[in-house]
Amino acid sequence: MTDLNAKPEIDFPEGPAPEQLEIVDIVEGDGAEALAGATVDVHYLGVEYESGDEFDSSWSRGQTINFPLRSLIAGWQQGIPGMKVGGRRKLVVPPHLAYGPAGSGHRLSGQTLIFIIDLRGVS
Question: Boundaries of each PPIase FKBP-type domain copy (predicted)?
């Protein structure tokens, strides 16, 4: 059973990084559905696909974070709509839907990223 009150753990992926966005529901929520353009309240964990190194986590800060979807990376804009409050989803985001190709200026450019996202609220 998945404990949605605990920081998630990510199993180290096998094989090459995917070239397209992968969306996997770990827990399906039963609350309000996130729509494109919504503002979402989430807990999340992000790791690099190749190394498994954590690069960001709202869990580490001890509080959820509220974002308008339109201000987030394309992988989140495409991967969160359809998710329901109370759910936990894994997104595997290739570079072109994250921070662009290597050399784009962001420290994560060129990286495939894995996020575990818990949807806590939508507005």
Answer: 37-123
The neighbouring-strand residues paired with 22 are: 92
pTM score of the predicted model: 0.94
Query: Closest Cα partner for 92 from 19, 22, 9?
Result: 22
3-17 burial, b at 16+ Cβ within 10 Å, e below that, comes to ebeeebeeeebeeeb
CATH fold, domain 22-122, is Chitinase A; domain 3 (3.10.50)
Residue 59 class from Cβ within 10 Å (0-12 exposed, 13-18 middle, 19+ buried)? middle
